Amino acid sequence: MAAPSPRSLILDLLSTQRGESMPVGALVAAGALFGVPENGLRVALTRLLSRGLVARDERGRYRLGPAAGALNQRVVSWRRLEERVRRWEGCWIGVALGGLARGRGSALAAAERPLRLLGFQELVPGLALRPDNLKGGVAAVRDELLALGLDPQAVVCELGALDAANEAKARGLWDAAALRRSYARSCRELAASEARLGRLAEGAAMKESFQLGGRVIRALVQDPLLPEPLVPAEERRAVVAALRRYDRAGRRAWAAFLARHGAPHVAFDSPTDGALAVA
User: Fold this and answer.
1) Rounded Cα gap, residues 253 and 160, in angstroms
2) What is the pLDDT of residue 101?
3) Topology of domain 6-70, per CATH?
4) Which of 59, 52, 55 is nearest to 17 (CA)?
5) How many whole angstroms separate alpha carbon 253 and alpha carbon 2?
């Protein structure tokens, strides 16, 4: 697997700390493990600090900053993924972007990220939608999209009673077969790595758990959370269950390193732990 960028390494490590700070020495040592030069890591840290994505306390230790709050809340929610969904009654949530498309190209481009994170797909130019199966309905989705950076001029609304052609088109916007294959692949890879971690040297186990656990978590964070009958929900739940088991193995792989470098680590099986399969 490719080495993480200095930026992603810093944010991923800090996202595991549940608001606690991490000494720069731990970040530098982790960077060295992944082949990230100290200078490059410190430059990335300075840039993240200037953007408010990380914050520094009076001891010179770092934690996630306020600007990372909304996205981090999504990342750390992987354990409670199924708590976000409700029974689908057949309606859709639509986001109309037509007002942004007229002379507001930058706002239109900025809308792509929050829409992607919440599983929206474009039905026709200027109109994206997803099944209305997230708890809280349209109001909650609207609030989350705005927190993630959607332009307030975008119209977020409920859609129902699509004609037969558009209903069929809407149901086919997501590649359900590819999604199911990714679920099965993640379960296989997590199980194989979990069985292997205890036999690896410390550094190798740390790297493997960080990279594989992080990749599966990113996939879950970006999962569209499609309802039955579009995708069998049990297959998504199986990935979450496999990742919970893998998380414990990853924490064991990282615990000694973090203790040596004075970084806190979250207790095993914490219900509010961070983004990666590391402590």
Assistant:
1) 49
2) 53
3) Arc Repressor Mutant, subunit A (1.10.10)
4) 55
5) 20
Mean pLDDT score, 194-208: 95
Vertex 77: Cα angle to 75 and 81 (nearest 5): 120
Report the pLDDT value the prediction gives residue 261, as an integer from 0 to 100. 86
How far apart (Å, rounded) are the C-alpha atoms in residues 273 and 78? 10
| Predicted TM-score (pTM) above 0.90 | no
Domains 6-70 and 85-171 share a fold: no
The domain segmentation of the chain, as residue ranges, is 6-70, 85-171, 175-260
The CATH number fitting domain 85-171, selected from 1.10.12, 3.30.1360, 3.40.50, 3.30.70: 3.30.70
